[in-house]
Automatic annotation (TrEMBL), chains A, B:
SUPFAM superfamilies to which the protein is assigned, alphabetical: CoA-transferase family III (CaiB/BaiF)
Species whose genome carries this gene: Agaribacter marinus
Protein name: CoA transferase
Gene3D superfamilies: Crotonobetainyl-coa:carnitine coa-transferase, domain 1, formyl-coa transferase, domain 3
InterPro entries (UniProt xref): CoA-transferase_III_domain, CoA-Trfase_fam_III, CoA-Trfase_III_dom3_sf, CoA-Trfase_III_dom_1_sf
Molecular functions (GO terms): CoA-transferase activity
Length: 380, 380
């Protein structure tokens, strides 16, 4: 089966996480993605090792986000290399970058210059906080974007310090928005033959991500307030949350509190059976539930609640999840060989096309490994 | 200016959050999105009020995610209505649904049946955990998907209970993946005239979202471990985290620990200046930083660290953010009038096209408000 983006060529000047995450998805869906990297060091993400984890001299993080791409090295401070890159641009459908505002203009690779070479180009750019304004030079880093966006007041309990999401969520969501914008512009390019510039930023993306709570704030002026106990969403009432049980934990979603209490034997809760009272009294209700759920194992609670279709679940770690048949049937893993004695196992594309799971056998590229091929192919 | 998806028609059978979030983005980018809703009650999300917030009888959540859409009512258990819907499908480019596995087949609206009406249709479907396997009937709800995915072991400190992200992150990220898949298939449709089925699930999406940590686990077998203090990312060493100051808090990102300590006057840290030691010793380093940052206000620390280009930031809530010029210049807000005396303020599309911010004046639709117009337009 052909993939939907087969025949589309993307030049990725982007480094680190947000831009390359968009490129990864386009590659998963069939595009040819060529990373344009500076000689020797390449994408700075190659050196960004979390937990000191490396594979073949590049960080594991770099490997996970650059699978299925090619690498072409060019020194963008060298006019000859810029000319070569411009020849590649003439053959591309999409380019992306996340340089600071002004850099691409200096290199002669801003949208207007690129459009002069290739009028139907789709030009994607990522910034931290937009190209203008007091934060235009603030580092576009995930934790900082989370911290200014209000997001750190959503997780953890009410008395906790500001609690960031323990994942680079601003980068990730911004990368998904970039991919959306690029793809929408590609639809237009294929229909009408015209190009477009697509701009995203960590801050705009992480605000969109919060639109539910943010909209409530904009209309009521009320700040999100985490529940004192078992907070799982500052705008939802009890019992919504995760509770410790006699052996592990249980997630309790929305549902009829009467069903929950009556079936599991929690008395004295009838005052709260009406949903209208379950937000303002959430700490009181949750305190009762904390004591209650401690008295039995997760299995016992699930055996009581699941047959009643009460929305609840065990709480798993990676170890338990990956041993579960419900995980195995997804075939989420793929192992990429990188040279004779080296391989890395990572996830596949989360999107299935015509029922087919999209695996890809190509690992992240060695710096400049596509130079020879591209020079020949495009007569560079 | 025209938007990139102008002329594209989407029929949205999806309810709640994930599917409609994809539809919202397509609408933002110029598509005509028509919600197909059951009579009277409509999309179940209309009744899903967080924090008991309502506007004109619909939940604020519904309003935020369905701006800029039309509504057509149809009873899919009625053959006449199904025939009408099929006429609409013949004129559409995309349809999406999030019914449980099997339902669309029973209604005669599965991919094969729809393809018989419209061979180039792009057909999007959302499930909780895939269409097969032991969890195919498990409720596809955000907190439950988070709980089985391992995500609850990323945020909060090491001794904390499993800590969910305080936002419907599985829904949101799954919706962004759906939009990506639909758009990639639209690119193919416009190039080659063929359709595709695009399938996503909360679980596959929330695993992709964790690919960094998950890949580390798959290769090393080591589980994520939150730091005991100021955790902000279980795979990153000190000083990465948020710290209380004399008056508020400060976010401290990656950077040279020597610069941080020397400039701010923290002694006795030279043993940790080498980055190799900063993961295994993170709790010790962070404990020192906790005491240190308490001694001055955030402003004082920022005045010391920012000129040295150390990546750091104040930590804001919605109130402080929305008063900041760096926020105001983004023009993220838009106010939608809904009838004479009712309006709602919400966010705009986070993606800019050709430098233009995409606002949209149309609020979420009243149930069935497009019936008359569509009946006339398509001779239903």
């Amino acid at each position: 089966m052909k993939r939907p983006l087969e025949g589309i060529t993307v030049l990725e000047f982007s480094q680190y996480l947000a831009g390359p995450y968009a490129g990864l998805r386009l590659a998963d869906l069939g595009a040819r993605v060529i990373k344009i990297e500076r000689p020797v060091k390449g994408d700075a993400c190659r050196q960004l090792a979390t937990k000191n984890m490396w594979s073949d001299g590049d960080s594991v993080l770099f490997h996970t986000i650059n699978r299925n791409k090619e690498s072409f090295t060019a020194n963008l401070k060298n006019t000859e290399d810029v000319a070569t890159v411009k020849t590649l641009i003439a053959h591309a459908d999409v380019i992306t970058h996340n340089f600071r505002p002004g850099i691409m203009l200096r290199l002669g690779l801003d949208f207007e210059s690129v459009k002069a070479i290739n009028p139907s180009i789709v030009y994607g750019e990522v910034s931290g906080y937009g190209e203008v304004g007091p934060w235009k030079d603030k580092p576009g880093q995930d934790l900082l974007a989370q911290s200014v966006s209000g997001l750190t007041w959503m997780s953890g309990n009410d008395e906790s310090a500001p609690t960031p999401f323990g994942i680079a969520v601003a980068d990730m969501i911004c990368g998904t928005h970039l991919a959306q914008g690029l793809l929408a512009a590609l639809v237009q390019q294929k229909r009408k033959g015209i190009g477009a510039k697509v701009s995203v930023s960590l801050l705009e993306s992480i605000l969109d991500f919060q639109f539910e709570g943010f909209t409530e704030f904009l209309n009521s002026g009320k700040l999100p307030k985490r529940s004192a106990i078992a907070n799982a969403h500052p705008y939802l009432g009890a019992p919504y949350g995760i509770y410790q049980t006699a052996d592990s934990a249980i997630a309790i979603s929305m549902g009829d509190l009467a069903v929950l209490c009556e079936s599991s034997g929690l008395k004295g809760m009838t005052d709260f059976y009406s949903t209208e009272t379950q937000y303002e009294n959430r700490d009181h209700i949750k305190a009762r539930l904390v004591e209650h759920f401690k008295t039995q194992t997760t299995t016992v609670w699930l055996e009581i609640l699941s047959p009643l279709n009460y929305w609840c679940s065990s709480v798993l770690g990676y170890e338990q999840l990956t041993q579960h048949d419900a995980y195995k049937i997804l075939e989420m893993e793929q192992t990429l060989k990188r040279g004779e004695n080296s391989s890395i196992t990572t996830t596949r594309c989360p999107i299935r096309i015509n029922g087919r799971k999209l695996h890809s056998a190509t690992p992240a590229p060695v710096i400049g490994s596509a130079n020879e091929q591209l020079i020949k192919e495009f007569n560079l």
